[in-house]
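FW: tagging you since you asked about this chain on Friday. Here's the raw sequence from the shared folder, copied in full. Didn't touch anything.
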Amino acid sequence: MNLAAIIIYLVLAYVITVHVGWKFYTNGRVYILHLMENDAVFTDAINKLLLTGYYLLNLGYSAIMITAWEKVENLEELIANVGTMLGRILLTLGFIHFINMMVIYQLSKTHKNPVKK
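HL: got it, structure written out here
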């Protein structure tokens, strides 16, 4: 039963991570482009770096979470464990998203007002 739970968890974590990451990538470009005053090259570079980092961080975190897996002996425990682990990933995704938004906003202020020497 543990193997089934882990496989279900990994498949769902992968699908959620890739789907949400792609949504952030496609829809976030407009936001970043606006903040960077239509600097498309800079925006695309930031957006690609964010997507790559997002995938690496979340898929790595998902894999590490398997080490915290509790023994599953019935369907109720399977659903509870998969739900708990996915919930942790979703909370992490939300937290990371807001941090990224804050960093991009701060970066846009620096991009608009570069330090002159």
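FW: The helical segments are 2-35, 40-65, 75-112.
HL: agreed, and The longest helix spans residues 75-112.
FW: great, closing this out.
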